[in-house]
Amino acid sequence: MKNKILILLLFAIVKVEAQTSIFTVSDSLFAKGRYKLALQELDKNTPSFLSNYKKAVIYESIDNFKKAAEFLEKAIGFKDDDNTKLKLAKNYQRLQILGKSIKIYEEILVKDSLNLVLKYQLGKLYLNTKVADKAVIIFKELIDNDITNANYSYYLALAYAIKKDRNRMINSFIDTFKKDTLHIKAIANLASSFKKLNDLDSTQLFVEKGLAIDKNHINLNRLKINQLYREEKYNEVIPFLLNLDSIDKKDTYSKSMLGRTYYNLDSLAKAKEYFKGVARMDREDFKAITYLGHIAFKEKDFRAASFNYMKATFIGKQKRDEEYYGLASVYYEKKEPLLAIKNFEKAYSENTKNYRALFQLAKLTDDYYKDKKMAYKLYLKYYKYHNNRDEGMANFVKGRINDIKQEYFMKGENLED
């Protein structure tokens, strides 16, 4: 009996030594980058927690996260190990299997509720999966444990953003900024939030603070550019646009805005260059073609203007009133009033807020037709819906309404017929 026990012990020792030898060889091969040979060496072993774990580490090193997760699952089948579970959770995250990752974090936190690092990771996972209520709870708990941590307040703000709780979101971003005045993400979000609230002073304040930290921040640059452009400070906006254009050559926003800025400065050659570039880069950007039409119109090249406006109306899928208005203006200049009337009508039909199109339609109809009844109705429509848009136009329309009324009264004709 003693001899049998001794033999079994000797066999076990030999088996362990053999496994240890295999692990040593595998580790050596892996350290030299021979991962395929290392995996072949591990395959010689009887499957165990360690053999599966080592295979997972190898697959993880070559970014094969699916295989890494597979062998980590097998390893956990041999031993319920929290560190291995966390490694598995991270691989699930890389594979975008976030539900399984969350489940692992939740299970471990039940046993270790004071692990703030795990809570932080779980809170971010809740944000990624839009589970805002649980994210709020997590980040509030984290803030209670460490009131100085700016990131906890920042992610709490993002949780409130998902819940569309604007006031608490802004307060949490402000709290982030108070804890860390260099927190560029919070600053950018504050600038954007105040812009949506139309609080221009606060927007400008955080835009300036953000650009002082990172002059190449894209969203902050865009806010600065839009502000200067809106204020018609065209010469001031150009350096910001050129800088933004240098950051991302594939971005059409900066090129389009450079085109508009140079157009407003009457630098038509430069404007044309940028709009042609935008049209090449983005074939669906019909507004770039519209501006090429505007430039041609200013240069009295009515053929090119007409071609570009027509092309823009063909490509455009949004309201094309600007394009039809431009086309009508070309026909007006070419002394083709019926085509001008037709396109002013299309412009107003595309966008009934375009009061200029309605005014031009009414006036040209008035000028062209001897019968003033059609023009009268158009003038009435203008005065009813747009009389407060432009004082000069409103006065002209009111005068024509009265003149036409008097003219038809004197002739004894009814305007309503």
What do these coordinates show?
There is one protein chain. With 417 residues, this protein is an all-alpha fold. It is built from 23 helices and no strands. It has helices at residues 2-31, 35-43, 49-61, 65-78, 82-94, 98-111, 116-128, 132-145, 150-162, 166-179, 184-196, 200-213, 218-230, 234-247, 252-264, 268-281, 286-298, 302-315, 321-333, 337-350, 355-368, 373-386, 391-411. Helix 7 (116-128) runs antiparallel to helix 8 (132-145), helix 11 (184-196) packs antiparallel against helix 12 and helix 19 (321-333) runs antiparallel to helix 20. The longest helix has 30 residues, at 2-31. It is elongated. Mean pLDDT is 91; it is low at 2-18.
Rough shape? elongated
pLDDT averaged over residues:
91
Number of helices: 23
Q: Could you estimate the helical fraction of the residues in percent?
A: over 70%
Structural class: mainly alpha
Task: Walk me through the topology.
Elements: H1 2-31, H2 35-43, H3 49-61, H4 65-78, H5 82-94, H6 98-111, H7 116-128, H8 132-145, H9 150-162, H10 166-179, H11 184-196, H12 200-213, H13 218-230, H14 234-247, H15 252-264, H16 268-281, H17 286-298, H18 302-315, H19 321-333, H20 337-350, H21 355-368, H22 373-386, H23 391-411
